[in-house]
Amino acid sequence: MKYYIIAGEASGDLHGSNLIKELKKLDASAVIRCWGGDKMQQAGGELVKHYRDLAFMGFAEVIKNISTILQNLKFCKKDIEQFQPDTLILIDYPGFNLRIAKWAKQKGLRIIYYISPQVWAWKENRVKMMKETIDKMIVILPFEKDYFKNKWNWEVEYVGHPLVEVVESQQSIVHSLRFSDKSIIALLPGSRKQEILKKLPVMLEVSKAFPSYQFIVAKAPGVNDDFYSSLLDPYNNVSAVSGKTYDLLMQAKAALVTSGTATLETALFGVPEVVCYKGSFLSYEIGKRLVKVKFISLVNLIMDKLVVKELIQHDMNVKNLEHELHELLTNEKRIAELKKDYAVLKNVLSEKGNASSKAAQLIHDLTLRK
Fold first, then answer.
1. Roughly what angle, to the nearest 10 degrees, separates helices 355-368 and 10-26?
2. In the predicted model, what is the mean pLDDT of residues 344-351?
3. What is the pLDDT of residue 168?
């Protein structure tokens, strides 16, 4: 079988790589061409474009890079036509992937979407087109199945969240590497340069108030060391690691985490966290008028309550971060409540078993149906 997979972000690369591994178990001769990253390539996919060349964050950034995006769309369509896949698999990344889905439907291709765009948060008007163009939607958040069924009369498949097995696999490995003799605070400022520049300087300033702790930045793949060095050099108790985010979370006492998949990863490792978001003025002002959810963190959205503190835009400042971090390090009652909620969260997300395996089986079975 021939599969063409498109992922446009670091999280998509992770989930895409595990999906490729499972597809290869079902069909060792499967040929997989992909847009993604190093992990998908290492799993056996033939990498066409790296996500670091695709990821544009926020409204202003998308407008500024519109010509590049259009060129990528044109190239992608041509590449798919030349490859002639049995199935096209789209992983999240909706701004790009939904355009490809609409085009691919007209070409008569089989389209499976793995990890739904967050249409329940914003751009809900996309669902009608999605329902018309996507042959099978596979979702990873428990509330999404009911959302699509009850509101849109669309039967989608819920397989559980693939991060559960990823984290469990990491926790099962014996690790001898120790990053510091001090207690560690993990800083996860994001995967794109523009979001790192917005959040990391604020996170770094907090380190001054906690001199007995070692603050360690998880570097993003594809972002060069020089970029981080200029930001980190002025701080005495700050260092950085590359490609070791999960090792870092296994050793961290607490974490300051940018909104996104990393908030869920941190929770599944059981690390108390503060969720941080700060965007450009234009992106934030537009976004707050369009987004319809109560929370920005996946942890809070899945649990449908405020489990982890969210500091958004102007509230994400040094004073507030210092206060919240101090609470996570010293307030035993809050820490205990957080750990209890984390346990419930993990149970909810793992009730369906191995998500990547289930998704691969669905995709394999659908592909066999000519």
1. 60
2. 90
3. 92
Architecture of domain 169-350: 3-Layer(aba) Sandwich (3.40)
Q: How confident is the model at residue 284 (pLDDT cuts 50, 70, 90)?
A: very low
Q: Closest Cα partner for 159 from 12, 352, 347?
A: 352
Q: Looking at the chain, which residues constitute the CATH 3.40.50.2000 domain(s)?
A: 2-160+352-368, 169-350
Of 78-92, 129-143, 267-281, minimum mean pLDDT range: 267-281
Ramachandran region, residue 304 (left: φ > 0; alpha: ψ -120 to 50; beta: rest): left
2-160+352-368 maps to which CATH number?
3.40.50.2000
How many whole angstroms separate alpha carbon 222 and alpha carbon 217? 15
- Residue 109 confidence (pLDDT) above 70: yes
Kindly give the residue spans of alpha helices, DSSP state H, lying in the chain: 10-26, 38-42, 58-64, 66-83, 94-106, 126-133, 142-152, 162-171, 193-206, 225-232, 245-251, 261-268, 281-290, 298-303, 318-330, 332-350, 355-368
Shortest CA distance to 334 belongs to which of 258, 250, 254, 268?
254
The structure's pTM equals 0.84
What local confidence, expressed as pLDDT, does residue 340 receive?
Answer: 97
